[in-house]
Batch of 2 targets.
Target 1
Amino acid sequence: MENKQSYETKNTNVLSDEERRSFDGLTIDEEGREQSEEDIRRAKQAETKGAYEYGRDKNSYDGFPKMKVYTFSSLGWKGKLVLATLAAVALGVLFFFGSLFLIGFSVVAVGVALLALLRKLF
């Protein structure tokens, strides 16, 4: 980002970015209208709010009807608790069936190894 120093042009004082942020007073925009810092802040907040609320009333984003977007941060503590419980149950099931699969695979592998050994002996 370019940091411009303040300079004067035709009786106009242009402020640098740092001076503009720290300035608390009345300014004139490019179209010649006077604006206070609070007016500028309100206009930017309204613009940002409008951009974030696009489609929120219709529960759709970017033109996809009836598509809801859930994020982890939007869940309350109850939602996070339910998600953690579901994750714990899923991991428990995975470990339970995974261990059964491992035991079954081991039994089959030992059986195949014994059969191969017995075929070589007889």
Target 2
Amino acid sequence: MPSHRSSANTSRRTQSNSPRQSAGSCPHWPGAAPAHAPTDLSYAGQDFEEALLDELKDKNTELNKAYSERDRYQNLYELANKKLSESHSAKEDLKAQVQGLKEDNAALKAKLEDAEEEIDLLAYQNEVWDKHYAELEKNYSDLSAHYSAVAASPPSSSSLRGAMKLPERPKSSHKPSGRNEHREHREHREHREHKEERPRKGGERESKDQRDRLSRRFDEKRPTSSRSRR
């Protein structure tokens, strides 16, 4: 190395400039330098150079360690940035999913409200149909009971029986006088029944019309009412 070479050159120059001693001369002449002084200086320079080299090696080793630590922290930093970017991406995806779920929830809530309104409407209609059905059933039962009572009553006690059930027509083998007599008797009885029924018909006409209307509605709506009850 340059420092080492310069030390060696200096040592050689020092040796060449010093006076040579003759054989047997005394080494301790006045003003003469010691014979070992240049060598000691060379050794001291070499030691100093070696110390500097050792220190340089130590500093270089520390610098390499610092570079290694820097590279390690750089890798950790890049890895952390990568994970942070992935976390942000996952966060955005989750936000999009949450927004989609909120929209789906709002749509389902609206559908649920519509379904509840339809259920309430159907329940109300079902209740109305039940009332109508109960009313029609009652009217039908009343009419059936009235018809059964009229059908079971004797001819003399019921004026409606004659109107609903006409007497049998006479056979052709009867005599003309008998047929005429029977027809006159029938006409007389119908006239009497009509006179007895007239005062009552005025008050019952409106009720009968209403029962007829209810009966027709019952016949028209009965299948629908049956489905509603199921």
